[in-house]
Amino acid sequence: MTMRYVAGLDGGGTKTAVAVADESGEVIAAFESGGINYNGQDEASIEASLRDMLGRIGEAAGGLDRCAYLCIGAAGVSNPAVSARLTAKVRESGYAGGLLITGDQETALSGAHESEYGMILIAGTGSICFGRNERGETHRTGGCGHLIDDEGSGYAIGRDLLSVLVRAHDGRLPETVITDLVYGKLGLKSVRDIIGYVYDPARSKKDIAALAPLLTRACELGDSAALGIAQRSAASLAELVAPVAEKLALQTGALAMAGSVLLNNVYIRDAFLERLQERYPEITCITPKKDAANGAVLMALNRLRGAK
Fold first, then answer.
1. b/e map 23-36, b = 16+ CB within 10 Å
2. Residues 268, 71: Cα–Cα separation, whole Å
């Protein structure tokens, strides 16, 4: 019997992580290619990235026709038009096997737990909580973008740091170490420079989120404004978890914590864990077991085996 293969794609904003596995689940290849996010790339670059990835999947599997199932996790695919466009591009690129296109929070959950069931809280550039229980019910909180949501995220922290800087400059807040940290990071010297930086049309939410690591240093120095940001961020993240746990009856079990904010900022993580423990003492927090590309492989394998 000819060995069959599956592939999982984790489509990020600027790059896509790919894992290829045989039908026993052993990963035989892993690589990165270009982004496939319709919010960040044009049609031609997405098509080029897909052709590159599918070509390399075919090489790993000994022919693209031997890849029996492909799972793609990407942002924005809850929009049916985006999912349809991505499906069309995959088919146009020569792939004819089984195909699942789903949200990147689902593949992240599957990788984190090595199971499609459980909860995951992601606090990176943005923030989102997602869960699925064993009845197959799902619920998601957050993830609605930086203009109206994403509290507790790297973007929100970067924005809050900038807000503290300008309010301290005005005298609305006491002096803070955040001022020098932000100026030093950006190579700027005045609030006027900050305003020019923030409102430059070329500036993206990732540029603001890149300031978030400064919060750790400010907290280490005991800065009251920084410690306040950490507490508010922790509260916002705990607020994301509660509706998921309640609606899915997941008040016990494991919550995977992912993203740079939770994994790298001990002040936010400790405050978050304290709040969560107070409300849900039977929830255990874990770090992800595997990444989202491997989560996509798991989802592809589950569907391939279900199709037997």
1. beeeeeebeebbbb
2. 33
Q: Assess contact for 110 and 296: CB atoms under 8 A.
A: yes
174 CB burial (10 A radius; 0-12, 13-18, 19+): exposed
Q: How far apart are CA 98 and CA 89, in angstroms?
A: 14
Per-residue pLDDT tens for 240-255? 999 999 999 999 999 9
Strands of the sheet containing 27-34, edge to edge, are: 27-34, 15-22, 5-11, 67-74, 98-103
E strand or H helix at 138: strand 138-142
Classify the phi-psi angles of 36: left when phi > 0, otherwise alpha if psi is within -120 to 50, otherwise beta: alpha
Q: Answer yes or no: is pLDDT of 41 > 90.
A: no
Q: Calculate the average pLDDT of the chain.
A: 95
The whole-number average pLDDT for the span 259-273 is: 97
* 16 HSE (CA, 13 A, CB side): 33
C-alpha span between 23 and 39 (Å, rounded): 33
